[in-house]
Amino acid sequence: MIRFFTLIAIACTCGTSVWAQEAVSSGTGADLLVLDKVSGKSSNYELASGSSMEIGQLTVALRACRYPEGAPSNDAFAFLDVSETETAQPVFSGWMIGSAPALNAMEHSRYDVWVLRCKTS
Predict the structure, then answer these.
(1) What region does 59 belong to: left with phi over 0, alpha with psi -120 to 50, or beta?
(2) pLDDT of residue 20
(3) Is residue 19 helix, strand or coil?
(4) Residue 50 zone, left/alpha/beta (φ > 0; ψ -120 to 50; rest)
(5) pLDDT > 70 fraction of the chain, expressed in percent and rounded
(6) Is the distance from CB of 56 to CB of 34 less than 8 angstroms?
(7) pTM (predicted TM-score)
(8) Contact 52, 60 (CB under 8 A)
(9) Where are the domains of the chain?
(10) Secondary structure of 37-64 in the HEC alphabet?
């Protein structure tokens, strides 16, 4: 079992170093998918970089959206700040990766937020 986790750690480290060397571009915004787990309703939103919007009981702010050069719909990663609207209590702050949202997922009792892709214009 320890050997398995060691191999996974090595694979992640090697994959990260290769990925970090790839040229990236900044998007003008991002497409987000929000799931309300109580009602079961999912909705798509467009958010410009540097702006924020209220989505249900959350305030979502997009600080930056980046993507591999020449592929805006592939492997987008965005820096989001998410807080409760009424209390301003932080819920999430960090990078979300569109192709692997579970790597740094937002944990909230009612909502899930995912980055889908960066906007280029």
Answers:
(1) beta
(2) 53
(3) helix
(4) left
(5) 81
(6) yes
(7) 0.76
(8) yes
(9) 23-119
(10) CCCCEEEEEEEECCCEEEECCEEEEEEE
